[in-house]
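Entry 12.
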Amino acid sequence: MAKAGPDKSTTKGGSYHHGALREALVDKALEILASDGVDNISLRSVAKAVGVSHTSTYRHFANKDGLLTAVATAGFLDLAAEIEEAYGTAATLQEQRLETAVAYCRFACANPNLYKLMFSSFLKDKDGEEALNNAMNETFRRCEQLGRQDAEARGAGAEQQGLAGVAAWVVVHGAASLAIEGILEKAASGNVERDRLIRRVLQSLYEI
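Predicted 3D structure (tokens):
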């Protein structure tokens, strides 16, 4: 593996300053993931697509696992940002729960390959583990907070509030996973557009 140092990798169109190549590799991996799936991602294929040498990728990633972990981390950060934006548009607690849940499912359905990667068990890169966990926790934090707040508003104790926080993510993750596979639409009666169906299902669950 090449020794880490200032990144001077170049392309035909110019050069990457330090740190820019890493971002370019992650961005290109995201593109390949979306169009061709995770099996078509490798350090070599991503380097070729970016226009740099294969060996230059080792300045940033020890192997494919490292690259995929960085891609998953980017996914969680984007998801957290979309959830936060949806949260900011809602006025009441119930609206906040619904809008963040809908935003979560919308992201998953728009990025199915990325979403599946984000929750893959084979993301085991130790160098990127902390960043991945931090990004995942940021996503969970908002879902968990809304579940806790709803339970608190109903007079639940501390333990039930904690369980409600976990349940909030369980519900939205389950809905997103079913929607990605098309199972949610098959299970629903009538011809309902997917986004509308997701909203109706989540709203129904939150009213229980």
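Annotation: Residues 72-206 form a domain with the Tetracycline Repressor; domain 2 fold (CATH 1.10.357.10). Residues 1-14 have pLDDT under 50 and may be disordered.
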